[in-house]
User: What shape does this take?
Amino acid sequence: MYFAKEVLESSSKMRQKWEDEVKKLVSKWPDQKPDAQWSTVSDLPIKRLYTPDDIKDMDFARDISYPGQYPYTRGNQVTGYRGKYWTFRMFSGMGDAATTNARWHMLLKEGQTGLSTAFDFPTLMGYDTDSPKARGECGKCGVAIDTLEDFLVLTKGVPLDKITTSMTINPPATALWAMYCAAAEIQGIPLTKIGGTIQNDMLKEFIAQKTLMCPPDPSVKLISDTVEFGTLKVPKWNTISISGYHIREAGATAVQELAFTLRDGMEYVEDVLRRKKLDVDAFAPRLSFFFNSHIDFFEEICKMRAARRIWAKAMTERYKSKDERSWWMRFHTQTAGCSLTAQQPYNNVVRTATEALAAVLGGTQSLHTNSLDEVWCLPSDFAVQIALRTQQLIAEETGAANTIDPLAGSYFVEALTNEMETQAWEYIHKIDDMGGMVAAIEKGFPQLEISDAAYKFQRQIDSAEKIMVGVNKYVSTEKESIPFLEIDDKIETEQIARLQAVRRKRDGKAAKKCLDDLKAACKKGDNVMPYCIEAVKALCSVQEICDVYREVYGEYRDPGLY
Amino acid sequence: MSDRKLRVMVAKPGLDGHDRGARVLARCFRDAGYEVIYTGCHQTPEQIVSAVIQEDVDLLGLSCLSGAHRYLYPAVTKLMKDKGIDDVTVIGGGIIPEQDFQLMYDAGLKAIFVPGTTLDSIITWINTNVKPRN
Assistant: This one.
């Protein structure tokens, strides 16, 4: 930032005086820990003080600018949160479709403004509930969906043209999105009117979340199909939510989360440009992002500010995008599950509130706040309501939404934003040199970088170099017990009975024909989406569709890197 | 007792992809001087048990955070018993609520490690309770 020469000179003098005083005082009363340990949760060193010197090379117009203006450091929204708060979007799903539908209606009644679906592991991995691989998992980590019939129960009473829904689904994203499209059709709503998001980000699955099905190349091809279909037929849909959340939860640092996520985004852009006849500005405005908001308050805010700037630069400089809607990095945020503790679970409310505030100050468009009991189980009604209220309270009471990007211009915040951007670009260039993200994943590069960071962090926790309250400091001998939400094991039997009833009643020949058509499309390299929609309407199951992909494209197994 | 290194397998049964704990433990075991086999995610109980036999391990550590431990851990130990494996120590970790502990012990697990456990305490437990088999 430009400072008059006199300002820098007087700052320099005052700084000298301050440094002398610090030295004197520290020699008498030493700091509580060595310099290197005053660092972020990701181990980024932080100085005792930031001054004009730290941002003197910044250029206001180039680096900070205004909301809604390049490079969007201060946000995409010209009016900030005054026109509309971020979307209160609680990620939820449990047991069967009817149970989850009831939870959704409860949340909407309590003032939630968007829906977000958590599926159980069989659904996430593209297996039906009656697959031997699915035993014991039904409804445990989210809602079990096998066929369109379940999906219609899930979305019962939800006006699909008025509320947007996000679906955390990756390898079977085409099948579940097809169900959403079919459900809209049944409600009489045209595809041009529905809005929402499918996560549909396979690169971060290989890197971190590990819901795996086919190898990287065909996985990315299926994603490009959805991007093309969305661009042409479902223009209000976000066809990918390029996710750093799981990368971070797997143990990455904030800079790794930033770099790997944005490089994943670039990989998708390049794949669509290579495979489809689409101009970058035809599809890039519908790419969306998803970040973690961890416990280190300023690091998170700076990460989000840096992310917008990196994306805007990448879109204009790398892909020659001309439409500013492509330059906006729009993102959802979830507070960090991995920052929560099983010990003293009520403390998790405080952690989540801090992380949610960071997300708001970082300019998120949508937010999920974790519930205090999520270390142990799916959230109870009681816990999820506190979590939703946390967002509402930040929006309505704290004043955090009054003004846009209130931390801009802070010596520290600007310097840390710059530092994180620089470090992220170093990673991005390294991955470019490897031949892109698919090549880097095949080498195990991001996976092992994350494992290094996860192991280092665990060692720091074990040695109390980094503190988690209730775990390695302020440990309490008394146990706080909280009510647990339990998913009954009998849900599995009921879900299997429902699935088998659907198989009996459907037109078996029609279902088989749809699957054959899908297989032919896969082999020919056609866009699979229209075939998926026909298949789900003929009551083909998630696994039947995914088995086609496995057969044509092959299966990918976790290489077990550590 | 032989002087050979302890052979340890870290396994992820079921469809769960939460593998941070398993990866961190695998590294920790390697640093502790054990020979480590990590299965990666998404192993069926059958795959795990045949890997236990093939790799001739002394200790099997199961990790699951999806809630499916109630089915999967006993399924692994039962298969081991069916195959006549009675000298491999089995331990488990993950999101295991206290009310499930007895179920796990009854299934033959020798120890359960839940969130907040230090790596060193796991190593200490292993060094005290598991020896390389002859």
User: Anything to note?
Assistant: Chain A has two domains: 62-462, 505-553. Chain A touches chain B at residues 121-122, 124-125, 127, 132-137, 140-141, 205, 209-212, 249-251, 338, 341-343, 375-377, 451, 454-455, 458-459, 461-462, 471, 484, 487, 489, 557-562 (CB under 8 Å). The beta strands of chain A are 87-92, 114-117, 165-167, 196-198, 237-238, 240-243, 287-293, 331-335, 366-368.
